[in-house]
Design a protein that fits this description.
Layout: E1 2-7, H1 12-28, E2 30-38, H2 52-80, E3 88-94, H3 97-108, E4 112-117, H4 124-128, H5 131-138, E5 142-147, E6 157-161, H6 169-182, E7 185-192, H7 203-209, E8 215-221, H8 225-235, E9 240-244, H9 250-260, E10 271-274
Helix pairs in contact: 3-5
């Protein structure tokens, strides 16, 4: 049985993303491992050191009580969506979120990580990065990030951003395999900067490799790569965007551009990061 890791802080953003985890688990016959990681706050003053153990025990108890209350709510979400048959395990760990996600992914041989993300709400976060992008960068597992404004709908169209380099073929195979599960169409989009000469972008090789699959190939000219991708998403009613992990920082840029250019639409579809 395949495994999906679902890191959660039990926020509304996280609970919304849980529906995607359930739908994916149902489609690929997977179990879900929910993960809640909490950090113990350091006392502000040295003179309370004699009370450290009491403070830690109190905080751990509070986290456990909150966890115990919230886990049944996830099961309720599954039942309400007629997905109560999905197998679930629940893990509570004290530590640092990104580190624990990486460790558990390796230990459990996780196939997908599904998590909610609030995206970027302040310009300084562009430089600090989001938890989702840190996990995308540090995990070798495919990550499905669900922005807070996502409303679940069937995945009918998936966009794969590519430059038609040969090292994009294996990630695209993973995307096509997932598309086959959802009976989805895949659009491959290459945004070529203006005034650039391409002698061999391997697009013919891509077409040959994927000729038996429901995949279309597109190339557009423009220097605003993120903007062109956002326009393609909007005009073609794309339900999910897939990105090869080597394009580090691209996830952040998609949010950044919607801030800096004040576009009329925000990223509100799932983003798949594929290694």
């Amino acid at each position: 049985m395949k495994k999906i890791l679902f890191p959660t802080d039990f926020s509304e953003v996280s609970k919304n993303a849980f529906i995607y985890a359930l739908k994916l688990a149902d489609a690929i016959n997977a179990e879900i491992i929910t993960l809640h990681v909490y950090e113990l706050d350091s006392p502000a003053f040295l003179d309370v050191s004699i009370y450290l153990q009491d403070i830690y025990e109190y905080e751990e108890l509070n986290d456990f009580e909150n966890y115990k209350d919230e886990v049944p709510l996830l099961r309720n979400i599954a039942e309400e969506n007629n997905l109560g048959h999905i197998k679930m395990r629940n893990v509570l760990i004290q530590g640092y979120l990104v580190k624990e996600v990486v460790k558990l992914s390796e230990k459990e041989n996780i196939d997908f990580i599904v998590m909610g993300t609030k995206g970027i709400t302040h310009l300084r976060e562009v430089f600090l990065g989001t938890i989702a992008t840190k996990i995308m960068n540090e995990c070798n597992t495919t990550v499905l990030a669900i922005p807070e404004k996502c409303i679940y709908s069937p995945i009918e169209k998936i966009l794969f951003n590519t430059r038609f380099h040969m090292d994009d073929i294996e990630p695209l195979k993973k995307v096509v395999a997932l598309a086959n599960v959802f009976h989805s169409h895949v659009d491959c989009l290459n945004v070529k900067p203006l005034h650039t000469v391409y002698t061999d972008d391997f697009v013919v090789d891509f077409k040959n490799v994927f000729k038996e699959h429901n995949v279309a190939f597109h190339s557009v000219l423009g220097n605003d790569i993120e903007g062109a991708i956002l326009n393609f998403i909007d005009q073609n009613k794309i339900d999910m965007i897939a990105i090869h992990e080597r394009h580090r920082g691209f996830f952040d840029k998609l949010f950044q551009i919607s801030l800096s250019k004040k576009l009329t639409f925000n990223i509100s579809i799932p983003i798949l990061s594929v290694h």
